[in-house]
Amino acid sequence: MTVPDPEPVLRVRDLVKHFPLTRGVLFRRQVGAVKAVDGISFELFRGETLGIVGESGCGKSTVAKLLMNLEQPTSGGIFYKGEDITKLSGRALRAVRRNIQMVFQDPYTSLNPRMTVGDIIGEPFDIHPEVAPKGDRRAKVRELLDVVGLNPEYINRYPHQFSGGQRQRIGIARGLALNPEIIICDEPVSALDVSVQAQVINLMERLQDEFGLSYMMIAHDLSVVRHISDRVGVMYLGKLVEIGTDLEIYDHPTHPYTRALLSAVPVPDPELRDRRERIILHGDVPSPTDPPSGCHFRTRCWKARERCAREEPPLAVPEGFEEAEGPVRHPSACHFAEEKPRGAGA
Ligand SMILES: Nc1ncnc2c1ncn2[C@@H]1O[C@H](COP(=O)(O)OP(=O)(O)O)[C@@H](O)[C@H]1O
Ligand SMILES: [Mg+2]
Fold it and tell me: For FRET with 287, which of 76, 133, 164, 202 sits at 20 to 30 Å CA-CA?
């Protein structure tokens, strides 16, 4: 983990992605929209790891694809060095994309089975030949294999000849090929055995220090990102509901949803387990085609009142916490935010 620099490398503003829902084959007509990402703003600082957590379907991968320019936003902006990259095209876009790379969730399906490891890792050079001229490519790929802890002699092998952990190392080597500043990691270890997860995470931490990388680390589980994140953002139904440092989110959460997520994280120590807050959420996550008015979480929230249906809480330091000092004072999108009871450490 590195100390974050106050200058953001990426600034996301009011980002929205609605996928149109259509009906009919001959006459396609729009009957609604999947509000996958529904207005989120955050910064990614130089050298930091920002964890993004939330249940399946809350919009995490869509955020990643928007940052990678694999999807066009419905509205909002993504600023890299002050420039809105959603407005760029052609050469300007290509130059930015070089600096923002992605490591995908599933190393079993994200690597082309018909390509050798050398071709997979070297493929980004086809689009950016300036990084590695033709004659240097093999040497560069061998170096990348070495950097991620794989034998450079494996350069001519195919993905099926590797284990899951090794395949994810190949995915990481590919992500590093263009020497990016930012790597977006979409659940990079969730398809791997628990025993291998730590090795891959350790590798990613080492690479971050070595290359000064900024990471956005997506996970559906709060415990996975805890140890690697400088800050964590919690998503629910297309929105960021709370964001803060590791200490603020894990030890001083103020949003009911974050508290519920934390109460579901397994605790090995029986004494701690007995003392901590237990929250069971009732009902399912509402459909993103028709999210609740006001606060999206209110239909499952035990604290919800009439105001929550009427007025959407902004992601800001909540009422009553403006004067507070220390880790409770951080952005949380709740009208009735509170600190969890004492002795409820998760
Ligand atoms: N291309 C798409 N077309 C329509 N709906 C989509 C598309 N991609 C994602 N969605 C929907 O958007 C929501 C968020 O999906 P996603 O970003 O993949 O969530 P997560 O990564 O948090 O599981 C889901 O309801 C999903 O079904
Ligand atoms: Mg996903």
Answer: 76
